[in-house]
Specification:
Blueprint lengths: L16 H11 L3 E3 L6 E3 L1 H20 L3 E2 L5 E3 H4 L3 H7 L4 E6 L2 E9 L4 H11 L8 E10 L13 E11 L2 H22 L5 E4 L11 E8 L5 E11 L1 H6 L3 E2 L5 E2 L2 E8 L1 H10 L16 E5 L7 H14 L4 E3 L6 H10 L4 E5 L1 H6 L1 E6 L5 E5 L3 H25 L2 E3 L3 H11 L2 E6 L3 H11 L2 E6 L18 E6 L3
Parallel strand pairs: 3-7, 15-16, 15-17, 20-21
Antiparallel strand pairs: 1-2, 4-6, 5-6, 7-8, 8-14, 9-10, 9-22, 10-11, 11-14, 12-13, 17-18, 18-19, 21-23, 22-23
Helix pairs in contact: 2-6
The structure holds one RNA strand of 77 nucleotides.
Amino acid sequence: MAKDKKVEQITDMEVDFAQWFTDVCVKAELVDYSGVKGLFILRPYGYAIWENIQSWLDRRFKELGHENVSMPLLIPESLLQKEKDHVEGFAPECAWVTMGGSEELPEKLCIRPTSETLFCEHWSHVLHSWRDLPMKYNQWCSVLRWEKTTRPFLRGREFLWQEGHTLHATAEEAIQETEQMLEVYAECWEKFLAMPVVRGVKTEKERFAGAERTYTVECMMHDHKALQAGTSHYFGDGFARAFGISYSDKENKQTYPHQTSWGASTRIIGGLIMTHGDNNGLVLPPAVAPIQVIVVPVAAHKPGVLEKANELLAALKAAGIRARIDDSDNSLGWKCAQWEMKGVPLRLELGPRDMENGQCVCVRRDNFEKVPVALAELTEKVPELLDAVQQGLFDKAKQNLDSHIFEAHSLEEAKELQEKHGGFIKTMWCGGLDCELAMKEKAGMTSRCIPFVQEHLDDVCPICGKPAKHMIYWGVAY
RNA sequence: CGGGGUGUGGCGAAGUUUGGUAUCGCGCAUGGUUCGGGACCAUGAGGCCGCGGGUUCAAGUCCCGCCACUCCGACCA
């Protein structure tokens, strides 16, 4: 089909992946640029996706006993500086408020890049007894990090996220929390967003500033680059000591609690786009899609068509399906292209011929398969089709992930594999920073994670030849 | 922050070399004909030419500065 490429065209991802991504973001009406670099407008359709992710996670967080709070936007400089590693990690990208009205402030205030310090300060006031533990807080907010280069969803200076912060009596309990929350992300991405993940631990180099251990879920994009899709940190009692957070334990001894934090951001929407999208635009898994079914009446001027289409719409809605009708007077082709671009999982066409046959035609966004559905079975079949699309997208993404994990036994081989195929390159690793730096220097890859699921590939680290401690995944990351 | 590219109605561009009345396509509005994969006709609205200086009788065009977007690096979710 020779398409009119004049206006609503999306660059093919094979031609220019980055441009394809930007095109999808803009043309599917997810974002718009604002007047300030790195600050993006989430349009209704884009925000609706975030709201769906948000409500899935929020419900799960609450099921697990977390409470939502709201912390201030601004952090006094002195507070930010209390934990040394943390401030060193974030100082380079802080933005500061220095004026109040026309007066210069006595102390400059950092616009939060993350809220650990605020939570710590607060906890130092309110934690008194072992009976107060655990404290499991979460907040939904936006944060600001003065990035050099920015892209919609993937790297904004301001971005929406959630940050969970918890305090526990023991290290074991805190570590369990950290692992549990990582699993919540993994479950949400895999089940809800149909994005398969690799779960693992970050190396010391890639660890969050101030953390003792950082867990991560890593996803693979269409272009075989990696996306860190959610992280969960165990802090030990380092922050508690730095901020003077202590409590009386059962023996009335002043004790420092163990702390965690974990976060996921709108960046995951960038991941969603780059995992499922195609050259026709966005492709959304039904679970997260703001519109799951778009009803398109064909030849809507013919008697009865529009009425019947609205009837179907009402039936779908009554069955709990997020459905909408496109009764605009645009041509059929235009409508098809438009809703494909916006990634709606299922298009339901109903025309006079269908009505004669007592059916409609469902078209799957993931594979364009056309499925005739008897009107009498509509509310049974549509959910089945939506499930099939969800599963189809996951399977395709899993296939992309599995077929792009390669094993290497030397730095040279790792480099070649990365250049040739992209993806994750797995090798053994001695645990040394020098080898990590060498991989970055010579092969352009960073360590993605030390996967929970380990394999024994060699006895020694292929980079330095010393005894190997772990199997590790390398990749080029967003 | 270093290097490249780009900024002209909502979108995509021509015009810049050689200064001289703001152009085209799409979209948008109204009316009509259409309608099973990006339809067509007619009429119409819409522009501080990214921003600020400068040169000139005259600047979208030349000069200086700045900003934004974008790509490639370094930094990062």
